[in-house]
Specification:
binds (2S)-2-hydroxybutanedioic acid; single chain; 335 residues; 7-stranded mixed sheet; 9 strands; two-stranded parallel ribbon
Length: 335
């Protein structure tokens, strides 16, 4: 009796060895990609591009569903949704990783750190950028890529030409301590506000002004509720594309490779369209006739840079002195 049972078990094991059970996935595999900005922005368009290429390269085995405009989750909730596996992919602004207790990404918020996109890519496509993404693994998150948006400008209902023009103003910021310190140096009052709530906050006077790349300013219709926009380009706003690590590592290897290719193509696309998209939206803001647009002279810009210089030193211990140092070296930062 015992011998028969053992023989049967051996038989089953032999059959299993001959025909290994390949895990089956419900097809198509769905990747829910949530983000907070409009579809017609650098991030929104790159997400759609990724969706298309992921479908094509996997021959329909993967279906990416993109939810723009905080339709699924606003800022803070989207991070926990990713960790819980309720969504698989996000591309939060680099200013929004502090709540995960990873402060290094706030290095990208340091004012006047990057002198254009080229500088920035020295970090985002190099070893420093990769090391930062690897820090996310301990939080159950895998960092796949950096996507550009652009350089931020200040807006308010009164003209902004000097740092003093922001004294006493309630300024909306993303949830970053570096941005908080930046506003404090300007003697403004920083107010952390979810992106989805910014228009209303500006409209009702909960905040007086904000900072954003022009693509966000235009597509969220902030020009309807801000009389002045000054092209200051005092800081950078871009994204890390992140996935739930368990989900990603559990994908069949061939599918993961195809998705990596789709992500590389989407990254090239995002970084190609970011500047032209912001430039186009600046013209549209001007054409709206609702916001007066000015650009700082080099002297005026230098005055902002000088006032904001202490933010680098004050925030170094929070961000991590090594990270600040590595980024400053990569871009050849000068005070
Ligand atoms: C913001 O909150 O202003 C930005 O992070 C929104 C975005 O994703 O570009």
């Amino acid at each position: 009796m015992f011998k028969t049972a053992v023989a049967k078990a051996i038989g089953v094991v032999t059959i299993l060895a001959m025909f290994p059970v390949v895990p089956t996935y419900a097809e198509p595999i769905v990747i829910t990609f949530s983000h907070v900005v409009a579809a017609d922005t650098p991030k929104g368009r790159a997400a759609e591009f990724f969706k298309k290429r992921a479908g094509e390269l996997t021959q329909g085995k993967v279906k990416v569903e993109v939810y723009p405009n905080s339709k699924l989750y606003p800022d803070r909730e989207e991070m926990s949704a990713l960790q819980l596996g309720s969504v698989q992919m996000l591309a939060p602004s680099l200013a929004k990783f502090g709540p995960l207790d990873i402060n290094d990404f706030e290095v990208f918020d340091l004012p006047f750190m990057f002198n254009g996109y080229e500088d920035l890519h020295k970090v985002t496509t190099g070893p420093v950028g990769r090391q930062l993404l690897d820090k996310l693994e301990s939080k159950g998150i895998k960092g796949l890529a950096y996507w550009d948006n652009g350089f931020k400008s200040f807006s308010a209902n009164t003209p902004i030409k000097t740092p003093e023009d922001l004294n006493g103003k309630k300024m909306r910021i993303q949830s970053s301590k570096v941005l908080e310190e930046q506003m404090l140096e300007l003697k403004a009052i920083p107010k952390v506000t979810a992106f989805s709530a910014v228009y209303k906050a500006l409209q009702t006077g909960v905040v007086d002004g904000t900072e954003n790349p022009i693509s966000n300013f235009y597509t969220q219709k902030m020009y309807e509720v801000q009389k002045y926009l000054t092209v200051t380009e005092h800081g950078y706003l871009g994204y890390a594309v992140i996935v739930n690590k368990k989900f990603w590592e559990g994908l069949p290897a061939d599918i993961r490779t195809q998705l990596e290719t789709a992500m590389q193509e989407a990254t090239d696309y995002a970084n190609k369209i970011a500047k032209e998209s912001n430039d186009k939206d600046l013209e549209l803001v001007k054409a709206s006739g609702k916001t007066e647009v000015t650009t700082l002279t080099p002297e005026q810009r230098a005055a902002f840079k000088k006032i904001l210089a202490p933010v680098h030193e004050k925030m170094a211990s929070r961000i991590g002195a090594n990270t600040v140092d590595a980024v400053q070296k990569a871009v050849g930062f000068t005070k």
